[in-house]
Amino acid sequence: MEDHQEMIEIRVEGGRAEAEADAAPEKEKNEVTVIRREFKQFDIIPTVDDDENNSNTNNSSINDHHYYASSSSSSSNQHQIRNSKKIMKEWKILEQNLPDSIYVRVYEARIDLLRAVIIGAAGTPYHDGLFFFDFQFPSDYPNKPPKVYYHSFGYRLNPNLYDDGKVCLSLLNTWSGTKNEKWNPSESSVLQILLSIQALVLNSKPYFNEPGYGNITTNLDYWNRVSLAYNKDVFVLSCRTMLALLNRPPKHFEEFVGQYFRDRAETILIACKAYIGGRVRVGDSLENSTTTTTTTTTTVASKTKFQNSMGIMYSKLVKAFIKNGSSLENYVGENMAKNQVESHLHETKAGRIVCWVCIFLLVFSVGILIFYH
Known about the structure:
Keywords: Membrane, Transferase, Transmembrane, Transmembrane helix, Ubl conjugation pathway. It comes from Macleaya cordata. The chain crosses the membrane at residues 353-372. This protein has helices at residues 2-23, 26-36, 50-53, 73-97, 190-201, 220-247, 254-276, 293-296, 305-323, 329-372; strands at residues 42-45, 102-107, 113-119, 130-136, 147-150. By secondary structure, it is α+β, with helices and mostly antiparallel strands. The protein has a single domain (42-288, 302-327), classed as Ubiquitin Conjugating Enzyme. Strand 2 (102-107) and strand 3 (113-119) form a beta hairpin. The chain starts with a helix and ends with a helix.
């Protein structure tokens, strides 16, 4: 009963703000409303269990959570009661200590579940991307770490994050590590897991996360080139993940995903253009990217596989961002012009090929006629 009261008190603050807003003058009420629409870094969702509600369209549904159906309502409720005090402690740690780049949602009806999103850091091939993770506290928590699932959409963009959603991390006991790196029931926390994923997994050189590649000391130039090539593939997959999230945002993060990409659309497209032009390496700062513009401009024929892939991604992102509500008129015109130029070049190349084939056939026919005469 004491734990239940504690959970209610965490939510009361939002209710108090609403009551004060209703009593405020009209102008002040509008200002409060704008503030309340800001997406909180940590929040408790007043969910209704789908087994009781039987409504797939219910806004408070959590049936898209990876671990939602992993246990029945009765069994999950039983272990929630046993673990509630420990889970409440995790909630307080998260509410008070989350960095600006991580957002978390927990669920009133299923306190064993949690969902988090990490914003990819600048200076990495994950910059400006969103990476979602579903957590479940086991029945014997904290003796065992939480289960964690990564929303990959079928893309493997990190050695530690599999396309089936598996997360390999020593802290989760899903990867080897020293005793200090493993889960410690008396010290480890969900916050520590999230920070580890952000710093150790979604880093600037993820290729070296591969087993045996982290301590390379010879032929470094070669391995750094391999790492840079890997970063290019990672960014393309990160762009694909952006498109997947815009098409199907995780529940209770729909507003966040939409607003985030409206805010970051132009920054993402500027980076894409710099990568297509070869002016900067993936993940590097774009501040000095214009200094090499004249020497790195590439033609359609000489573009690399990465640049061609980014050209395709760029067009798809422009369309998706506009559909999401971004104002990108300049990019639309530029994108159409770019497509027309490339189409013209391809058509010209095809025309030349046809012309040479015709000349060859003509010469061949004349040769045959001369030979028989």
